[in-house]
Amino acid sequence: MTTFTERPVADVDVANIARIYDYYLGGLYNFAIDREKADRIRTMLPGVDLLARANRDWLRRSVRFLLDQGVDQFVDLGSGLPTANNVHEVAHARNPLARVVYVDHEPSAVLHGEEILADEPLAAMIEADGRRPEQVWAHPRVRELIDLSRPVGILMGGLLVFVDDEDDPAAVVAAYRDACAPGSYLSISHLSDDLADAATRTQVARMTDAYRVGVGQELYVRDREVIASWFEGMELVEPGVTLMADWRPDPGSCVDAQTSSRVLGYGATARVV
Ligand SMILES: C[S@@+](CC[C@H](N)C(=O)[O-])C[C@H]1O[C@@H](n2cnc3c(N)ncnc32)[C@H](O)[C@@H]1O
User: Fold this and answer.
1) pLDDT digits over 195-243, tens only?
2) 73-77 and 99-104: which strand pairing?
3) What are 187's strand-pairing partners?
4) CATH, domain range 48-195+220-272
5) If you take atom 13 of ligand 1, which residue's CA is the nearest one?
6) CB–CB of 46/207 below 8 Å?
7) Based on C-alpha coordinates, what's the Rg of the chain?
8) Which atom of ligand 1 is nearest to 76's Cα?
9) HEC assignment per residue over the chain
10) Residue 3: pLDDT above 50?
């Protein structure tokens, strides 16, 4: 087993989104600066860690659904760290031959990811900009592990929340869709507050301010209608674009059933035709 050491990496003194997210998931791949920022952000939106957990739970259910459809190769865009029962663990539990490439743009997340996956021949982590499909497809590890002539699962759990309108999330999604063979699937989750009450919306606004000011990262909150529009030209899988917790929930699971953060994110999966 690989042991994580707080070894000096370029941004050890700068909080980073992947490690903040890992902290919210209960992971160990985070530094004091990440925990400090994460705790501060949680004072703005108390359910933010439950939201992260609901997002990761949705991602796992989505991967299991795709495995059930026969998908055996996955590209996880904006993956964060490959920890906390992430895609390769879920996939390999059902299909040990499944191939997984994690993609993140944060160098230190990728450094840790490579370390974590060192003993996994069928999983890799690469540094690339998820907004640039051509960068992803051209990467040698992607070319080695992913066969685009066969169905592939493209996962965008919480990626597009970092993509502003100028970078055109709809066009990014369409470019991935067009690169994939028929029978492929795209899964997307996204932060939203259109069902939230006024108090929770205020908390969400404070949280996005805290990310901007404290971490230097802009977060975009979007309505269900906008998120649904990205699936144009694909077949949405039932139950369509729903709150993440309502997308094919596991029997008996209720990670955030009673909290206001339950309404803060949509998830959906669609088939490429
Ligand atoms: C919310 S976290 C991880 C979520 C994870 N995919 C999940 O669903 O559990 C989002 C990740 O996206 C990464 N990210 C943000 N913008 C990106 C971009 N343009 N390209 C690649 N990764 C990006 C961040 O570094 C962060 O690790």
Assistant:
1) 999 999 999 999 999 999 988 999 999 999 999 999 999 999 999 999 9
2) parallel
3) 155, 269
4) 3.40.50.150
5) 78
6) no
7) 17
8) 6
9) CCCCCCCCCCCCCCCCHHHHHHHHCCCCCCCHHHHHHHHHHHHHCCCHHHHHHHHHHHHHHHHHHHHHCCCCEEEEECCCCCCCCCHHHHHHHHCCCCEEEEEECCHHHHHHHHHHCCCCCCEEEEECCCCCHHHHHHCHHHHHHCCCCCCCEEEEECCHHHCCHHHCHHHHHHHHHHHCCCCCEEEEEEECCCCCCHHHHHHHHHHHHHHHHHHCCCCCCCCHHHHHHCCCCEEECCCCCEEHHHCCCCCCCCCCCCCHHHHCEEEEEEEEC
10) no
pLDDT, one tens digit per residue, over 15-60 is: 999 999 999 999 988 999 999 999 999 999 999 999 999 999 999 9
The best mutation among 11, 105, 207 to test binding of ligand 1, ranked by most ligand atoms within 8 Å of the C-beta, falls on 105
Strands 123-127 vs 153-157: parallel, antiparallel or unpaired: unpaired
Whole-model pTM over 0.90 = yes
User: How much is the pLDDT for 8?
Assistant: 47
Would you place residue 4 in the very low, low, confident or very high pLDDT band (cuts 50, 70, 90)? very low
CB 271 within 8 A of CB 235: yes
Contact 130 CB / ligand 1 (< 6 Å): yes
Token pair for 269: 């999966």
109 lines ligand 1 (CB under 6 A): yes
Question: Which residues partner with 124 through β-bridges?
Answer: 101
Q: Are 111 and 145 in contact (CB under 8 A)?
A: no
List the domain boundaries for the chain. Answer: 48-195+220-272
| Smallest CA separation from ligand 1 atom 12, residue | 78
CA atoms within 13 A on the CB side of 72: 10
